[in-house]
């Protein structure tokens, strides 16, 4: 896939409680080197020690909007990734509003954080990405226009340590009696604003726990619709 990356710049957003695992740091350093070799402006924005992930995400999004970066790339602090996949998703984000990779839960056998609902059959676009309802947002990039639109509709609140009200874009809620996390709620809000989110099944991610759980959703999708698939 050849994409003109002229004008693309990236902020990597990572909420973290405290320490970052060595595998995540290694992925981050490799990504920094690759983007530097491609002359793509790159910045890392951490939110350290904030126990409320909704607050941490909203604070980082506020910082992003005050920057000149064109893409906001969310990465959880316990994820391992390949730098080439980070670059691929940045390229895809020039063609889509939101695009990301799925990572497995920290358990065996392998399962993924997915909401397959998309209002109909799962569709694949010309880049091989799947239009679905949402996924764990720990490796997801979005175009600046998405964050701008979300900020415009979100309540403006004052947070500890902030000098001005901040658009509180992230929330947890419930749907049909079930608790819904901030990532799935965000995808629902994005869809309501008219944006589309796509999952790239080719991305392989590691989720660091008692061991590193590594898998690609593409392995689970072959063949789609059979009993041993994701449904």
Task: Explain what this protein looks like in three dimensions.
With about 230 residues, this protein is α+β, with helices and mostly antiparallel strands. It has one domain: Spore Coat Polysaccharide Biosynthesis Protein SpsA, Chain A (Alpha-Beta Complex), CATH 3.90.550.40. It is about 30% helix and about 25% strand. The strands form 5 sheets. The chain has an 8-stranded mixed β-sheet, with helices on both faces. The protein has a 3-stranded antiparallel β-sheet with strand order 4-16-17. Strands 6-9 form a two-stranded antiparallel ribbon. The longest helix is centred in the first third of the chain and has 16 residues, at about 20-35. It is globular, with a radius of gyration of 17 Å. The two termini are about 30 Å apart. The model is unreliable at about 225-230 (pLDDT under 50). It comes from Bradyrhizobium yuanmingense.
Name its key features.
single chain, 231 residues, alpha+beta, 8-stranded mixed β-sheet, 3-stranded antiparallel β-sheet, 17 strands, Nucleotide-diphossugar_trans, Glycosyltransferase 2-like domain-containing protein
Distance between the termini: 30 Å
* Residues in helix, %: 25-40%
The secondary-structure element order is EHEHEEHEEEEEEHEEEEHEEEH
Number of separate structural domains: 1
Largest sheet: 8 strands, mixed
* Total strands: 17
CATH class: Alpha Beta
Q: In terms of per-residue confidence, which ranges show pLDDT below 50 for 5 or more consecutive residues?
A: 223-231
How would the global form be characterised?
globular
Mean pLDDT: 92
Structural class determined from secondary elements:
alpha+beta
Order of strands across the widest beta sheet?
Answer: 2-1-3-10-5-15-8-7
Strand fraction equals 25-35%
CATH architecture: Alpha-Beta Complex
Count of individual helical segments: 6
Radius of gyration: 17 Å
CATH topology: Spore Coat Polysaccharide Biosynthesis Protein SpsA, Chain A
């Amino acid at each position: 896939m050849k994409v003109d990356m002229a004008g693309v710049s990236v902020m990597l957003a990572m909420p973290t409680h405290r320490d970052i695992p060595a595998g995540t740091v290694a992925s981050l350093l490799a990504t920094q080197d690759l983007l530097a070799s491609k002359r793509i402006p790159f910045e890392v924005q951490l939110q350290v020690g904030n126990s409320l992930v909704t607050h941490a995400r909203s604070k980082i999004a506020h910082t992003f909007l005050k920057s000149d970066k064109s893409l906001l790339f969310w990465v959880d602090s316990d994820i391992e990734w390949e730098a080439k996949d980070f670059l691929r998703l940045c390229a895809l984000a020039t063609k889509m509003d939101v695009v990301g990779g799925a990572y497995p839960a920290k358990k065996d056998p392998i399962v993924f954080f997915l909401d397959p609902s998309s209002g109909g059959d799962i569709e694949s676009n010309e880049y091989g990405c799947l239009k679905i309802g949402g996924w764990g947002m720990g490796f997801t990039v979005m175009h600046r226009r998405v964050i701008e639109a979300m900020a415009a509709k979100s309540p403006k609140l004052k947070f500890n340590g902030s000098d001005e009200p901040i658009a509180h874009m992230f929330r947890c809620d419930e749907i049909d009696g079930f608790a819904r996390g901030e990532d799935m709620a965000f995808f629902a809000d994005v869809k309501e604003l008219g944006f589309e989110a796509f999952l790239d099944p080719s991305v392989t991610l590691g989720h660091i726990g008692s061991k590193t759980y590594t898998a690609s959703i593409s392995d689970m999708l072959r063949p789609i619709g059979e009993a041993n698939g994701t449904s």
